[in-house]
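Q: Is it fine to ask for two folds in a single conversation?
A: Yes, each is treated on its own. Send the first.
Q: Here.
A: Result:
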Amino acid sequence: MTLDQPTPRRLRYDGHCSRCGRALAKGEVAVWDRAAKTVSCVACPDGATPEEPEPDYGVGGGSARREYERLSAKREAEIRGRWGRFGGVVLALTDQPQSTRAWAIGARGEEKLAQALGEVDGIRVLNDRKVKGTRRNIDHVVIAPAGVFVVDAKNYSGMVQIRDRGGFFRRDERLYVGGRDRSADAEKLGWQVEAVVDALQSAGVDPLPSVTPVLCFIDAEWPLFRAPKSYLGVRLESIRSLRALVVSDEQLDTQAVEGFTRLLAAALPAK
């Protein structure tokens, strides 16, 4: 990557200093590093990085795990309140609702993916991110040499397939996993990508790095031949293939990876 000389400029968007993390307001003069696609305070000395805390990388599956524990505790309290000293027996003989178990399954998938990505050199992973102004979260944002990846972890079982449900004159391709239509999972990644792009644009990043949506199926099965690679512009990956994807190109150097990590960690805090 060719390095351009960093130059002071008035910011078009609010942002954060890539060196000290201080908030930088729109219109404030800051140093724009076009090569790294980061901004920094004019007061931060060139070539020196002041002491600053590590970004909060978050905990994979953290909010899903907490929701599972909340629902489990609520169910236990209700059963013990209703059945008294027989509550323990009732709990032992009955299963949790599927809606409660789903939170635990999802949490395990996110935890497994966060651990696997954490073993890849040269990348940064922001887990379980909160989108300000909403109750939504993004499972993982990966900042890597190959760009920025918005990853939704899905802990499904069964075969990943693309099926055409259209007729003779109309194609209607749908994403199936284990015989269930999961097309909506790909559609929901749109707002997640938009949140990441908005955060980068608000910090004055121009040009933007590539921002790629990914559905990562933790323990699903894949066809031996012609396995689907994408659906509606969303990459379909296993843990193994995702680990290879994020280092498959060199769009961002180390400085850019670190700068974008701090920027996105501040804009999309851990949940």
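Q: Second one now.
A: Result:
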Amino acid sequence: MNYSGRKVVYDWPGYNSGHANLNIVHCLIYMRLSCDLVMSPFSFPDTLSLGEKIPLTLTIANVGKKMSDTCTVSLYMSSNSYFNKSDDLLKSIAVPEIAESDSIVFEVNVTIPNSLPSKKWAIGALVDANNDITEISEANNLSYSIFVLKGYPELYRFVPSPDAEIFTPRPEISARFKDGYFGIVSDSVRLYLDGQEITESSEIQATKIIYTPATDLSQGSHVVKVEVQNSLGYKTMKEWQFQIVTTAVDGNNNIIGKREYALSQNYPNPFNSSTQFQYQINEPGWIRINIYSVEGKLIKTLVNEYKTAGTYHCRWNGKDNSNSSIASGIYFYKINSKNYSKTCRMIYLK
């Protein structure tokens, strides 16, 4: 049919112009004489160690109807099974053309990185990782295998948050730790404040160490260090600092000069590569800062964690939660806490 076809009547789906309405439209898209690369399953030991070299046999078959073009197969390491380019790239291999109904085998060695925590990991082999060729299906391009890594214990959720400004002279100082597979050696947990060990004055729980100063801390910067070790003998250490910005109290023991909640306008605005803004919270709590499109769609979660009272800085690089660049336009950033919510508008220009 064409626009000058004889006795042809055109209509829009869902629009009644007096002719038969199109309530359902079926669209079938298919390809002929296209290649279709398949990554065959592979396996390795259930448990691996840091720095270990493992041999892999990778088989790639072309089950399509046409010879494939050259491409690459990339080996990624991920803490989940949703592989993308934000995961650790272990190795890339050039794949030559593969004829119809033919296959190719690669023998490769992969080295496990030396600085990862103990947990379940997955190594995935993704053929045509850069989407260079057109295939009948891309759903069969990935194979992966899961293993437990003999790695380091994890330290996380530091209080006060690194580089925070604190408005109380006796803040809680704490950190969480875990190793779900090889356990934490309980008497290995150590906590230091300004170079002095305070472990004996701290409370050590199953997954947390907590210290509350008995006297006021001095105004200015303070350095915290925490250490833990798992049953494998691997030790993790984290050092961070925070700042006491006021220690003055009134007659009712209330902090003088305590700041309120606030969210500043981003700068620069408009921006074309990255932008930053400042926010303040006046009490400890869970803080969320999200980026939204004008349609209200969630684009990026910048902050989603427990924060102590203080002033913080936040930066956004114009990418979404999948680490993909977003389009130019108007966006909104919103802070939410138990007692505060505010939204600001910004403009992104590529």
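Q: Anything structural to flag on that second result?
A: Two points. The domain at 154-244 is CATH 2.60.40.1220 (Immunoglobulin-like). Residues 247-256 have pLDDT under 50 and may be disordered.
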